[in-house]
Amino acid sequence: MRLQSPWHPRLAEGAESPCDRLVSALSEDIGIGRLEVGARLPAHRDLAWKLGIGLGTVTKAYGILERRGLVRSVTGRGTFVAVTESRTGDVIDLSRNAPPSAVSERLIARSLTAIAKRVDADVFNAYPPVIGHIRFRNELARWFRRLGMDADPAHLLLTNGAQHALAVSLSTLCGPAGTLFVEQQTYPGIIGLARHLGVTLSPVAMDQEGMLPEALDHELTTQQLRPAAVYLTPTMQNPTTGSMSRSRREVIATVCRRHDIVVIEDDVYALRPDPDYPPIASLAPDRVFYINSLSKTLNPALRIGGLVVPAAWFARAEAALHASGLMISPLSCSVMEQWLLDGTADAVSAAIQEEAGRRRIIATELLGAAMHQPAHIGYHVWLPLSSAEAEAVDAAAKAIGILVTPPSSTSVGGISAGIRLCIGAPPRADLEKALGAIKAIIARIAARSDDTSSALR
């Protein structure tokens, strides 16, 4: 005798087609565990009759779910929930934080042609100085000044992107047994890097601007750990999108000076100068390792970062850089130089910021009050949610082919407080589709919470 399906048939809310609404309903219930692996789905005809939709609609929906790896059909037996990790097919990725695309094939070809006409063979035929050729450091320092950071090329080290600069900073300041003080919600990359290097992460309380100075002062006073450093993304904090006011930055610098501790300032989301939000490095140049790169401002493939280091730490940082990599790609450096000289960098940066602004508007219109409204334009948005809600959104989105940043990957201390959505890289149509689906997921989760609360009252 064939077992009955445990699923209670429904169509998801929304104005989409019955097929899309059925796919959404089943995907969500599979994603949040309402339908367990191995559970039978209703027979095609039975489901069509119960929902008042066509048989072909059910067949099409089941086919979509099977292509995504959420269900499997067994000839003569029926359709069953599959292991979700086996999903195949296209997904919309909102988990990778990259800028919108603004570099065309024609622009790349034109740039390479210009480089070929004035190529310096010596740049390609020998190892450069550990910290990079002075001509390229001068150009990167000039770009940093356009972003609001007055960097001295003599104190600037070239790195393979911001992540490499972070690794050099941690190696220099913390070593393999040091401590890094971070916000309770922080950049997933710094969490993974610290674990890889054996650095202990110590969470510090935060609010919508970021790290609380009084909480940092308390932690530094009570723990008194050395070696140690403080990690901050003061503009468009990753993941919460908060930006520290100038006064907050000044107090943070004062606290760190009092405790004789260095700040690692990750400023990759500062896309333009803003006197109301100056780099902490400009307020306390002797107390800050400043990091920025071209990957977030111009192009993800342009893996050139810069690390500005106080003079007292420069020799140790140079040694750490030498141990972690001998050179930055000379071709990438040549592209950077060409773009900065001919104005391409300014044009690309402006185009990226315009598109990022348009995507912010799309996200705000679709997500509304569910989204934290940041002070700056960037490539990610933050949905403040409870830990349980964040995990439910993550699972339900994954089930319908949308990848978000896993809540656990941004949390230090084990309690997630929201979901990061990266809105820069996906095609705009995919972005609108994904954000609309996430809006519907959040609404359904909220409705179930309201129903549960009413039942308890």
Features:
alpha/beta; single chain; 16 helices; 457 residues; two-stranded antiparallel ribbon
Question: Could you explain the architecture of this structure?
Answer:
- This protein is α/β, with parallel strands linked by helices and 457 residues long.
- Helices cover 45% and strands 14% of the residues.
- The chain has 16 helices and 15 strands.
- It has a 7-stranded mixed beta sheet, with helices on both faces.
- Helix 4 packs across helix 13 (330-342), helix 6 packs across helix 13 (330-342) and helix 15 (387-399) packs across helix 16.
- It is globular, with a radius of gyration of 25 Å.
- It starts with 17 loop residues before the first helix and ends with a helix.
- The model is unreliable at 84-89 (pLDDT under 50).
- The poorly predicted ranges are 84-89
Q: Mean pLDDT, rounded to whole units?
A: 90
Tally of contiguous helical segments: 16
Spatial gap, N to C terminus: 42 Å
- Please tally the β strands and state the result: 15
Work out the strand percent.
5-15%
Largest sheet: 7 strands, mixed
What is the SS-derived class? alpha/beta
Strands in their spatial order, largest beta sheet:
4-12-11-10-9-5-6
- Helical fraction equals 40-55%
What radius of gyration results from the CA coordinates? 25 Å
Shape call = globular
